[in-house]
Amino acid sequence: MDTSDKVVMMNGSPTDPNAKQFKQGAMSELNGKVDIAKSYDTIDWKPENAEASMAKAIAEIGKGNIAGVYAANDGMAGGVIKALKAAGVTTLPPITGQDAELDAVQRIVAGEQYMSVYKSYPDEAEAAAQMAVTKVQGKDIQFDALTQDRADSPTDKDIPSRLVQVSALTRAKIKDTVIADGIYTTGDICTAKYKAACASIGLK
């Protein structure tokens, strides 16, 4: 482990079971590979709370000693970026997010946010619709081909599920993800503020 690789973790709300799962998943990859210098749970997932926590982290770690920031969603990533800019950081470290929000996609285009976790909403919708139709037809979906995966919740274990593949949405993957799936158009993303950045990566 390189102890100079200080990472800040900006986790989701402690009252949300999803946040706990995201944190566990991130820790399974980061633990032992980087120095997790600070880790915060963010009340209500609010960007302003993430911004305040990031300001504390910068004050304690030093703005030049942060190698990356794991933010559990895009809104919090935006708060993290605000705090870094307010501290005078001009070259931002890699910052993650989740949900592929339009603001985040634009920050990715601009090079401010490294990536977002993109879940293919058309794939999710198709899987849900197929399960709904199967249920309405009176068929048992417990062991159906639609639910070959299994997942645990805070209250139940081994729930029949359909796990949809996610992908890391980086500058190189914008065309193949949110644009290809019809989530956003280049017009949505490449507003006047981002036209030059869009052109630099071939989005027109």
Topology:
Blueprint: E1 6-11, H1 17-30, E2 35-41, H2 47-61, E3 66-71, H3 74-86, H4 102-110, E4 116-119, H5 121-136, E5 149-151, E6 159-161, E7 166-169, H6 175-179, H7 186-189, H8 195-200
Parallel strand pairs: 1-2, 1-3
Antiparallel strand pairs: 4-7, 5-6
Helix pairs in contact: 2-3
Characterization of this structure:
The chain has 204 residues and is an alpha/beta fold. Helices cover 40% and strands 16% of the residues. The chain contains eight helices and seven strands, in the order E-H-E-H-E-H-H-E-H-E-E-E-H-H-H. The strands form three sheets. Strands 2-1-3 form a three-stranded parallel beta sheet, sandwiched between helices. The protein has a two-stranded antiparallel ribbon with strand order 4-7. Helix 2 crosses helix 3 (74-86). The longest helix is centred in the middle third of the chain and has 16 residues, at 121-136. The radius of gyration is 19 Å and the shape is globular. The mean pLDDT is 88.
